[in-house]
C-alpha cells in the first residue's frame, strides 16, 4: 500500500513538473530569454512526466510545430503505459510491508 501511494505521488509530481516546465519555456520563448533545453523537456517526459508534458504542450501551444515533440511525447507515453502493463501482468509477486 505504501509503495502504491509513493508511486502515485511521484507520478502526480513529475507530471505537474512536466506541465509547468512547458509553460515556463513558452513564456521564455515569448520574452526571448534563456530557454529550457529540449533535451531537458524530453528527460522530464522520459522519467514519468509524459502526460503532463503533452497536456502542457497543447495547453500552452508550445512545441506543437516540431514533429519530434508531436510524435515523440506520445511515443514515450505509450512506452510507459506498455511498461506498467508488463509489470502488472508479470508472474512475480511484490511483497508489501
Question: Summary?
Answer:
The protein is mostly helical and 97 residues long. The protein has helices spanning 2-31, 38-59, 67-88.
Spell out the blueprint of helices and strands.
Blueprint: H1 2-31, H2 38-59, H3 67-88
Helix pairs in contact: 1-2, 2-3
How would you describe what is shown here?
It is a single chain. This protein has three helices and no strands. It has helices at residues 2-31, 38-59, 67-88.
- What is the N-to-C succession of helices and strands? HHH
Instruction: Kindly estimate the percentage of residues that lie in beta strands according to DSSP.
Output: under 5%
Shape summary: elongated
The stretches of 5 or more residues where confidence is low (pLDDT under 50) are: none
Distance between the termini: 8 Å
Estimate the helix proportion, in percent.
Answer: over 70%
SS field, number of helical segments:
3
Q: How confident is the prediction overall: mean pLDDT?
A: 91
Radius of gyration, whole Å: 16 Å
Count the E strands: 0
Main sheet overview? none
Which class of secondary structure composition applies to the elements? Answer: mainly alpha
Provide the descriptors you would attach to this structure in a database record.
single chain; mainly alpha; 3 helices; 76% helix
Amino acid at each position: 500500500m505504501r509503495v502504491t501511494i509513493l508511486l502515485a505521488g511521484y507520478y502526480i509530481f513529475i507530471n505537474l513538473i512536466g506541465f509547468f516546465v512547458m509553460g515556463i519555456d513558452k513564456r521564455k520563448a515569448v520574452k526571448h530569454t534563456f530557454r529550457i533545453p529540449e533535451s531537458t523537456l524530453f528527460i522530464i517526459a522520459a522519467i514519468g512526466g509524459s502526460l503532463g508534458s503533452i497536456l502542457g504542450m497543447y495547453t500552452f501551444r508550445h512545441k506543437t510545430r516540431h514533429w519530434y515533440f508531436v510524435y515523440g511525447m506520445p511515443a514515450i507515453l505509450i512506452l510507459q503505459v506498455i511498461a506498467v502493463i508488463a509489470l502488472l501482468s508479470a508472474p512475480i509477486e511484490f511483497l508489501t510491508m
